[in-house]
Predict the structure.
Amino acid sequence: MQNFTFQNPVKIVFGKNSISQLDQLIEPKARVLLTYGGGSIKRNGVYKQVKTALKKRKVFEFGGIEPNPSFETLSKAVELGRKEKIDFILAVGGGSVMDGSKFIAAAIPFKGKNTWQIITSQGAAVKSAIPLGTIVTLPATGSEMNTYGVISRKSTKEKLAFGSPLCYPKFSILDPLTTYSLDKKQLRNGIVDTFVHVCEQYATKNSKAPLQDGFAESIYKTLIDIAPAVMSGKKDYDARANFMWCATMALNGLICQGVLQDWSTHTIGHEMTAFFGLAHAETLAIILPAVWKFELNKKADKLAMLAENVFGINKGTKKQKAEAAIKHTVKFFNSVGMPTSLASYNLKPADCEVIVKRAAEQGWQIGENLDINANTLRKIFALAK
């Protein structure tokens, strides 16, 4: 096991009707910027609950944060926040709203000339941030309990991640009832996103960290067990509650302590979203199996463990088990309605040359082995066809 330092200060408020606790979580004199996405919170009753809980406070609103939140849109929220002297941000929505709100929180007090430096520095340029809280309505990214955000810039077709300890939410409210209005595509994307988050931290070299591995395997197995109930569309509270908690636990820093991490699937997937407009989870489902096939020998130990401990495959050689883990992962993605090939979106490996070119320009050396670069990237796209 590798050395690590771990601290997570986020207060989680979990359960039915927990949005009402906002009144105790935000200072009465706070000037609050309420951020949200396309307006679904006004249709599903969440907006009304939030406004009722915040009725004693001065509340400003910024809606319209899009999936894969754009720097251009978020910059308008930064202007509003500065103008109205906002001192607390409440993000209500899924990962895009939460990620975008972390950027807004860091950008409002930013002293540099260009707030894009927050992103290009991967968060190192963040010296202060407005406090923020979140209310999760779409489980997927785990942004409610970590420091990270992923922001897109339309003008340059970039999608980049940043992170800062100053961007930890002060609290996050998780009410599984808010997931009842999600459609099947949103649920599918959330399940796959969560699953791949675990993969990026688990399916690497064996770091001899059985406790972390066990936590990760529990998330895998829970997702597989509850997926049929979640995807059925029924209002199954226990299934939705476990789904929501899996998404949080998958990326709150717990399962990655002391282990090697990959994140090459995410890096490649971000570029696919930037160039082709695919949803984040859609890109992950295409790229993950291809990365695993490319790295099969180097990941064989952990993929064999995945086969044995999650999918119950105990026969065959280590390599055969590793190959079976890939097949069963693809089967699981397909079971929730998620395609796993470029062809499913009318794309070919040749279309991905724009990403290969960018990888060459930026000198990519990604993955836990630092062996995915412009040349090897072509092989991965070929395996994803």
